[in-house]
Design goal:
- It is built from 8 helices and 25 strands.
- The chain has 416 residues and is an alpha+beta fold.
- The chain has 3 domains: 150 residues, Alpha-Beta Complex (Adenine-n6-DNA-methyltransferase TaqI, Chain A, domain 2), CATH 3.90.220; 124 residues, Helix Hairpins, CATH 1.10.287.1120; 114 residues, Adenine-n6-DNA-methyltransferase TaqI, Chain A, domain 2.
- The strands form 10 sheets. A 4-stranded antiparallel β-sheet has the order 4-12-9-10. The chain has a 4-stranded antiparallel β-sheet with strand order 17-24-21-22, with helices on one face. A 3-stranded antiparallel β-sheet has the order 5-8-11, with no helix packed on it.
- Helix 5 crosses helix 6, helix 5 packs antiparallel against helix 8 and helix 6 packs across helix 8.
Length: 416
């Protein structure tokens, strides 16, 4: 059992007796040279390290006002809502001014400190030294960050810790990637089950006909084809007096409850313009079609409530099973049918445009049978996916704990 001592720092706790402490400013100097992304390729500072600029990164027209990064520099995002976004750069390039670029001052094992800076505990300590008005505008600049005290193990132990964590975390990441692949496969299977049922029905021996719709092909011969407006009108019942307070939101293809009293700053002061919705309505998110091709844009309402009027609220106007039509529109959504329909600067849809979309009407009893089948099948698949996601969460928690325990010396890597 190695001898430990109190570091005097809450976030570090006890560290090995032969380790020393140092200020970040004693180990790193800052690189603050401004450059253009025309001369130095733009890079993104992410929680997976420094990467060529992501397509999803916020772009500005001020490409001449960026920071130089050299191979081996350590860059960290100074904003609190980007905690954990940092890494050693494998590239020469440029990063946004919101990042701090650090250059090692003395002999060290840079990957040891990369692991240290990725810990949740360091992220919280770095946040504690910051300044701002609200959490998402909170930053920790170099003048404060350089005063943070961090552990400085002997060089050979830095090397052992870094080597061990590189190998061990690679094993964990490979296992997590395999589980994520299984989740992606299950999600794809679920989509295919839904698409098959809502376009082909449940009877494999039924007579088929050409739907005349390219992305669907053959459908049961007895099904009727009509536009959406044959079955659904648009509900525009405003919450004018603000009396309704069951706030609903469309999230990952599900209409869920949301806390109307939350203080996260993302909700309006008044809900008078929100639409009152009813169970059986189908919600469509029709905006930003060209910018976001990954979100699920349909949801089935299961209770009375209110939702933003930015969405289209489809309400049944004849006897239909809304569950079937929701599954059908969900299938259209994942086939990216909606993206060819939008227009305008934000490439959005209104009810008039959306309602001309052609859909299928099985007999009512068949709608119910298909919906019941899909409810049961999707619940089964979702249950397996939830188990896999729990496994991912467990692995992530284990990885974080492992990193923290080794970079702070609470667990020791044996000398080779």
């Amino acid at each position: 059992m190695r001898e430990m001592k109190d570091s005097g720092l809450k976030w570090l706790g006890k560290i090995p007796a032969d380790w020393t402490l140092a200020k970040i400013g004693g180990l790193y100097s800052i690189r603050n040279e401004k450059v253009s992304d025309k001369d130095y390729p733009p890079l993104s500072v992410t929680n997976k390290g420094i990467l060529p600029q992501l397509e999803t990164a916020a772009k500005t027209n001020d490409g001449d006002n960026r920071k130089l990064v050299r191979v081996g520099d350590f860059a960290i995002n100074s904003r609190s809502d980007r905690r954990g976004s940092c890494g050693i750069s494998p590239y020469d390039g440029s990063v946004s001014l919101i990042n701090i670029v650090m250059v090692p001052r003395k002999e060290m094992v840079p990957t040891y400190y990369e692991w240290l800076f990725h810990t949740t505990q360091f992220g919280d300590e770095n946040y504690r030294w910051g300044h701002g008005i609200v959490d998402d505008l909170w930053t920790t600049g170099w003048q404060d960050m350089k005063k943070i005290t961090i552990p400085m193990p002997p060089l050979d132990e830095q090397r052992r810790i870094a080597k061990y964590l590189d190998a061990k975390c690679a094993e964990i990441d490979a296992l997590a990637a395999d589980i994520q692949t299984q989740i992606d496969t299950l999600e794809q299977y679920k989509r295919s089950v839904i698409t098959e049922a809502v376009t082909k029905g449940l009877n494999p021996d039924v007579e088929m006909k050409d739907s005349g719709i390219e992305w669907v092909g053959m459908i049961p011969a007895h099904w009727i084809i009509h536009p959406v407006y044959t079955y659904f009108g648009e509900r525009k019942n405003k919450n004018r007096f603000g009396a309704e307070d069951n706030l609903l939101s469309l999230s990952y293809g599900r209409v869920i409850r949301k806390d109307i009293n939350t203080s996260d700053g993302l909700l309006p002061e008044s809900f008078n313009t929100y639409n009152i919705v009813e169970a059986g309505d189908i919600i469509i998110r029709p905006t930003d079609l060209q910018n976001d091709k990954r979100s699920l844009r349909t949801g089935l309402v299961k209770e009375h409530g209110i939702i933003t009027s930015a969405y289209i609220d489809l309400c049944p106007i004849k006897k239909v099973d809304s569950r079937y039509f929701h599954f059908l529109l969900h299938a259209y959504d994942v086939m990216k049918v909606f993206y060819n329909m939008g227009n305008g600067v934000r490439q959005g849809l209104n009810y008039s445009e959306f309602s001309r979309l052609m859909v299928f009407e099985p007999p009512y009893d068949e709608q119910v049978a298909i919906a019941n089948h899909l409810d049961a099948k999707c619940a089964e698949i979702d249950g397996i996916i939830a188990q896999k996601q729990d496994q991912l969460s467990t692995l992530e928690a284990y990885k974080k704990s492992l990193i923290y325990e080794y970079v702070t010396g609470k667990k020791e890597v044996p000398a080779q």
